[in-house]
């Protein structure tokens, strides 16, 4: 059984990653090249690329973990990080919504029904959360104190309802110490963030969409405007439900 790491050990291993691990951005580029050379429909290329590039972030994290010999202590049902602010571009949000639309009828109806309840029951906390400035450095702590769950969190199972296409922030925040540090603190110092991987992932997503755009393909995103417009995920979902997402 793997023992939990102390904070000092996590810092030591993160320093080792910074000093000796060489990330190969080619792995992201290869996914884009393969998709652009395929004969698939434009929407399939975008959604397949979206999911594959998100998954590649998981693979890259696993390679770094192997490099320094550490294993996350996160477990299904914890949901600690599901109360952090999730900030994504409008382009990513639209890809998420289109992916959900392609889920099975039962699954997507379950999500839509959950959103109906969520935006009613959490209206007070949502008004406070969405009034925060997502560009402010202290927003993470202020948002977390509201104890507002992610709109994709299943309240019964404490699992993500769109797990395979969950955004980058949900994938890059991991704990390698005792899980109780998450249970007992709003912002514990032990968990480690791989948020720097966002640049590699988003660069590849942007390249994919840019090439399709320049080729005159019919896109369901407004490129490049959607790529550089950011907000909290609950805000994008609210606008999507109201049919106003393209008015922003």
Q: How does this model look, in words?
A:
InterPro entries: Puta_zinc/iron-chelating_dom (IPR005358). This is YkgJ family cysteine cluster protein. The chain has 248 residues and is mostly helical. It has one domain. The protein contains eleven helices and four strands. It has helices spanning 7-20, 26-36, 42-68, 90-101, 105-121, 123-129, 139-145, 168-171, 180-184, 197-214, 233-242; strands at residues 87-89, 173-174, 192-193, 230-232. The strands form two sheets. The protein has a two-stranded antiparallel ribbon. α2 (26-36) packs parallel to α10 (197-214) and α4 (90-101) packs across α11. It is globular, with a radius of gyration of 19 Å. The model has no long low-confidence stretch (mean pLDDT 94).
Structural key phrases:
248 residues, mainly alpha, two-stranded antiparallel ribbon, two-stranded antiparallel sheet, 4 strands, 53% helix, YkgJ family cysteine cluster protein, Puta_zinc/iron-chelating_dom
- The residue fraction in helices comes out at 40-55%
Poorly predicted ranges (pLDDT <50, ≥5 residues)? none
Radius of gyration: 19 Å
Reading the helices and strands in chain order gives HHHEHHHHHEHEHEH
| Overall strand count | 4
**Strand-residue proportion:** under 5%
Mean pLDDT: 94
Distance between the termini: 50 Å
User: How can the largest sheet be summarized?
Assistant: 2 strands, antiparallel
- Work out the helix count: 11
Question: Pairing-aware structural class of the strands and helices?
Answer: mainly alpha
* Overall domain count: 1
Strand numbers in spatial order across the main sheet: 1-4
The dominant shape is: globular
Protein name: YkgJ family cysteine cluster protein
Pfam family, one: CxxCxxCC
InterPro entries: Puta_zinc/iron-chelating_dom (IPR005358)
Organism: Halobacillus andaensis
